[in-house]
Amino acid sequence: ALRLAGGRSRCEGRVELEQEGTWGTVCDDGWDIPDADVVCRQLGCGRAVRAPGGAAFGRGHGPILRDEVGCEGHERHLWECPAALEHDCSHKEDAGAVCSEHQEWRLSGGRDGCAGRVEGFFRGIWSTVCNSTWYELEAMVLCRTLGCGNALQRPSFGHTLPGKMVYLCGSLQPSLAQCLWAFNKSAPCYQSWAAGVICNGTGS
């Protein structure tokens, strides 16, 4: 099994492999975009945008299972790529990946990082979020994802960015990426305003 850990969505984080029931990490020696590409594709996360090393998503635990990974980029699984199984690494060299399907969020134009217009980052651009399906549940998921507590209000704003996202959550998910979502589809955003939220926490 394979996963990305420590990131803001399942498509960003420290590369972790499972071997014989134990999760371990990959050393960043020789780690580059073709290697991360294989990881992103294997996880259904699109293409690699970045291939950070140096434990960019925090230091992992357990064994270091691969070193000197040398994917060409077309492999279906990371374990098909040539790699050294012996290593001279520590967890401060854990490899990571940021994939094109990764999403992150911010609040802008408010009093701090926990209030304002909802903006989502996806496929390399920041977008506003349409308020057509922006209800209490969606606002709550976002406030918690950002570490901002609970949602107090949902003000509306004008759309100011080129892209538009729509989210619809059926339950209190760990992030908006786990809810139903759409990117740049005009119908759900027709005559909508940009969603906003004021959370009860305070952010930077």
From TrEMBL:
UniProt record, GO biological process: zymogen activation
Keyword Disulfide bond found: yes
Domain SRCR, residue spans: 2-100, 105-200
Disulfide bridges in this chain: 71-81, 169-179
Transferase as UniProt keyword: no
Keywords: Disulfide bond
Annotated GO MF terms: serine-type endopeptidase activity
Any single GO CC term annotated in Swiss-Prot or TrEMBL for this entry: extracellular space
Alphabetical list of SMART domains matching this protein: SR
Name of this chain's protein: CD6 protein
Organism this protein belongs to: Rhagologus leucostigma
